[in-house]
Design a protein that fits this description.
Layout: E1 2-7, E2 10-12, E3 18-26, E4 32-39, E5 45-52, E6 57-59, E7 67-72, E8 77-82, E9 91-99, E10 106-108, E11 112-116
Parallel strand pairs: 2-11
Antiparallel strand pairs: 1-3, 3-8, 4-5, 4-9, 5-6, 7-8, 9-10, 9-11
């Protein structure tokens, strides 16, 4: 099992910044990927950014240049730095851990709300 606990969401004005954190613990064995997903009301859960255990990063086109994903290996914490936030960034942000080849071995956090509004 892998436990994921997100924090850092909130209400921010357009153009503002937020940093999300995801504290991970449990049986995390390689190769794996960690990522952030966003779910807006009435929409599916979409990938925002991901990072492999080897450090390879991937970003959705809508956030490139505004968002940075990073990981602190010392304490198994995943981060998402979001700058120049837009109203369309609003949604619940979920942290996910998944094994690269054992597809059933995947886990989600409980989510944290991000609202971008004047």
């Amino acid at each position: 099992q892998v436990q994921l606990v997100e924090s850092g969401g909130g209400l921010v004005q357009p153009g503002g910044s937020l940093r999300l954190s995801c504290a991970a613990s449990g049986s995390m064995f390689s190769p794996y990927v960690m990522g952030w997903f966003r779910q807006a009301p009435g929409n599916q859960r979409d990938l925002v950014a991901s990072i492999t255990d080897g450090g390879t990063k991937n970003y959705a086109d809508s956030v490139k240049g505004r968002v940075t994903i990073s990981r602190d290996n010392a304490d198994n914490t995943l981060y998402l730095q979001m700058n120049n936030l837009k109203p369309e960034d609003t949604g619940v942000y979920y942290c996910r851990w998944w094994h690269s080849t054992i597809m059933q071995y995947q886990f989600w956090g409980q989510g944290t709300q991000v609202t971008v509004s004047p």
